[in-house]
Each structure stands twice: as C-alpha cells, then as structure tokens.
Amino acid sequence: MKIYEGKLTVKNKKFFVVVSRFNEFISKKLLEGATDALIRHGAQEADIEVALVPGAFEIPFAAKKAVETGRYNAVICLGAIIRGGTPHFNFIAAEAAKGVAQVAFSSQVPVIFGVLTTDTIEQAVERAGTKSGNKGFDAALSAIEMVNLYGEIDKAS
Ligand code: INI
Q1: Which among 30, 61, 63, 145 is most buried, taking Cβ atoms within 10 Å?
Q2: pLDDT digit string (tens) for 137-154?
C-alpha cells in the first residue's frame, strides 16, 4: 500500500496570505501566527506575500486572483467572523467558507481556510494566540502539508 503524506517543512515555495481587516485585533494575530509557522518550518520572509481585504466576504475574491497568477504554491485565507445581534454573521460565514472551497476546488495549488467563526469575541481571542492556540499558525502548517502532499502526488504520476 502506498501512502501519500505531506511533510511539514518547506523550501523555495511561495505563499500568498489573504487577511481580512475586519476584527483586525484578531486577524493580525492570525497573520502573525501564520508567518511564524511558515518561517519556523523553512520559508523565507521573501517567500510570503500578504493581501489585506476589507472583510471575510472579500477573501475568496482575492484568493481567486492570487491562484490565477500562477505565482504561488499555496494560498492561506485568514479572518475572524464574530456573531453579532443579527443574521449577518451567517451570510458572511457561509459565503466565506463556500467561496474559499470553490476557489480551492478549481485550483492546482492548495487554498487553506483559516477563518475563525465564533459566537463571541472571547472565543476568537482564545483561537488567536491564547489558550486554544493560534488558528493562523495551524492554517499555515496545513498549507505546508498540502503543498508537499500535492508535490508527492504529482511526483508519482
Ligand atoms: N467581516 C468579517 O470579516 N467579520 C465579521 O464578523 C463581519 N461581520 O460580522 O459583519 C464582517 N463583515 C463585513 C463583510 O465581510 C464585508 O466586508 C462587507 O459586507 C462588504 O462586502
């Protein structure tokens, strides 16, 4: 039985990170976590490019643009959608998740969903570098693993 599994170190691969500015105090922590993970697992600072978008709704559009350039080995999407008093949260969360998945399905490179969807600000803080880790860091690790996995599958074919 042949098993394909992506390694967690990386060299000479380009990453494009899309970050939403909405709830910036959270999303900037996710970005810090993601760049920390990329650099600690072998990427150079020059291998990382970042695009800021207004909110999570816009993330898939920038991710699609990045994929279409063919310049990047992975796209990492980061943001924080926090429930408010209206149904707005549900629409933004659904469209962000659906949109990123849609881009990923038609992309030759991995597109990673590192967008928090939480009921409270506290839950978001917990996932942005405090007691539940940093989901930006986790998203970047997933990107590295998937880049390497795609490489392994391509190499075998
Ligand atoms: N965008 C977010 O990234 N997070 C949110 O919590 C959020 N809420 O709750 O409204 C949010 N809204 C803005 C949205 O993503 C778009 O930027 C806006 O609708 C313009 O298209």
Answers
A1: 30
A2: 999 999 999 999 999 999
Main-chain dihedrals φ then ψ at residue 143, nearest 5 degrees: -60, -45
Q: What is the pLDDT of residues 51-95, one digit of tens each?
A: 999 999 999 999 999 999 999 999 999 999 999 999 999 999 999
Q: Is the CB of 73 under 6 A from ligand 1?
A: no
Specify the length of the chain in residues: 157
Q: Which atom of ligand 1 is nearest to the CA of 54?
A: 17
Question: Which of 138, 121, 155 is CA-nearest to residue 26?
Answer: 121
Q: What are phi and psi of 108, to 5 degrees?
A: -80, -15
CA 29 to chain centre: 13
Tell me which DSSP letter residue 8 carries. S
Q: Is 30 in the pocket of ligand 1 (CB under 6 A)?
A: no
